[in-house]
Specification:
Elements: E1 3-11, H1 15-33, E2 36-41, H2 45-52, H3 58-65, E3 69-74, H4 89-100, E4 104-110, E5 130-136, E6 148-149, E7 154-155, H5 162-177, E8 182-187, H6 193-205, E9 213-218, H7 219-228, E10 235-238, H8 240-249, H9 251-254, E11 261-265, E12 270-274, H10 291-304, H11 308-323, H12 341-353
Parallel strand pairs: 1-2, 1-3, 3-12, 5-10, 8-9, 8-10
Antiparallel strand pairs: 4-5, 4-11, 6-7, 11-12
Helix pairs in contact: 1-10, 1-11, 1-12, 2-4, 5-6, 10-11, 11-12
């Protein structure tokens, strides 16, 4: 078995805690399946600013470019909210995504039956909810130029090219083909020229996937449908800003941001991270939910290294641990036995080894 090189970027806030938990589970899966994973730790975000003045320092840039995959915790620190843009933790994250060229962000959303009551939605609305959000990740408003804020006027530029739409749409069509063969493409084509191009390109690509049913939907209706009829959605394709908002909204379906993983894929090393932020008030308290990061490690194995069996073992261990009644505080109900970050990771790791 060849050695695989994983760069680990714990980041800020609860990032180091949930990453440590995920590495414990990843080690258990590696031992069970005979994987040889070489880990290299690096700095990003506020931790990197504190150490180097740069949210994505040169050493980290060099490390991730020679990696087979990258595991990220979270970035963000309120103490840097007023910092210049080039020193904001989020600037480091955007630069990392651009550096790796990870243009397709996959965010699966499925319901663990024992946690149905954690959602504010009626349980019957959650029946058959198993969807995948495919978000374009390296274009749109977050990267468009010109941009600026002089205190009187501010500007951001929303720009997409045909090539950018085509490449992420191919990922979405292929994902739908491997699932229930339904693709819901989100835009605001009644207002935005970029969305008009988006809709045109996706429509032109559809004949190459005759087994996939394509539907277009405006983003405002998509937001409503996500919480009123989530079971009708299979694969949801969207641009960067809309995807950022809709995928966080999808957390209401499962009951906690702490449960949801993501994989960001492109032409080089993949980037794997939970969808939640750094949650500074929870840092250092052993209360953060590590399941989203652990599930991201499973996606790293599946999409980053091609180790589907090991990934499935982690996913099954997560399901079994939840079914056995273990809960972190964010997904606990009155009367549940609450465990911390470290204990949840131990439970999942033990089930893999068992």
């Amino acid at each position: 078995m060849s050695t695989r090189h994983i760069v680990v970027l714990p980041g800020d806030g609860i990032g180091p805690e949930v990453v440590t938990a995920a590495l414990q589970v990843l080690a258990a899966a590696s031992e069970m399946f005979g994987l040889d994973l070489q880990l290299e730790h690096g700095l990003i975000g506020a931790a990197a600013v504190d150490a180097t003045g740069d949210p994505l320092p040169p050493a980290t840039r060099a490390a991730v470019q020679r990696a087979d995959a990258v595991l990220l915790g979270a970035v963000g620190d309120p103490s840097l909210d007023a910092a210049p843009r080039h020193q904001k933790p989020e600037t480091g994250l955007l630069a990392l995504r651009k550096l790796l060229g990870v243009y397709a962000n996959l965010r699966p959303v499925m319901i663990h039956p024992p946690l149905r009551n954690r959602s504010p939605l009626r349980p019957e609305l959650l029946e058959h909810t198993d969807l995948l959000i495919v978000r374009e990740l390296t274009g749109g408003l977050y990267y468009g130029e010109p941009r600026g804020n002089d205190g009187v006027n501010a500007v951001n530029t929303l720009r997409y090219s045909r090539a950018e739409v085509e490449r992420v749409a191919r990922v979405a069509f292929a994902s739908a083909r491997g699932r229930r063969k339904r693709l819901l493409s989100v835009d605001k084509a009644n207002v935005l020229e970029t969305s008009q191009l988006w809709r045109t390109v996706v429509t032109e690509m559809a004949p190459a996937y005759p087994d996939v049913t394509l539907e277009h939907i405006y983003v405002d209706f998509a937001a409503m449908r996500l919480v009123s009829d989530p079971g009708s959605i299979d694969v949801l394709l969207t641009e960067n800003l809309f995807g950022d908002i809709l995928s966080d909204e999808a957390a209401v379906l499962v009951g906690s941001l702490g449960l949801l993983p993501s994989a960001s894929l492109g032409d080089g090393p993949g980037l794997f991270e939970p969808i939640h932020g750094s949650a500074p008030p929870l840092a250092g308290r052993d209360v953060a939910n590590p399941i989203g990061t652990i599930a991201s490690a499973a996606m790293l194995l599946r999409h980053g290294l091609g180790e589907g069996a090991a990934a499935a073992a982690i996913d099954q261990a997560i399901t079994a641990t939840i079914a056995a009644g273990f809960r972190t505080a964010d997904i606990a109900e009155p009367g549940d036995a609450v465990v911390g970050t470290r204990a949840m990771a131990r439970q999942i790791a033990d089930r893999i080894q068992a």
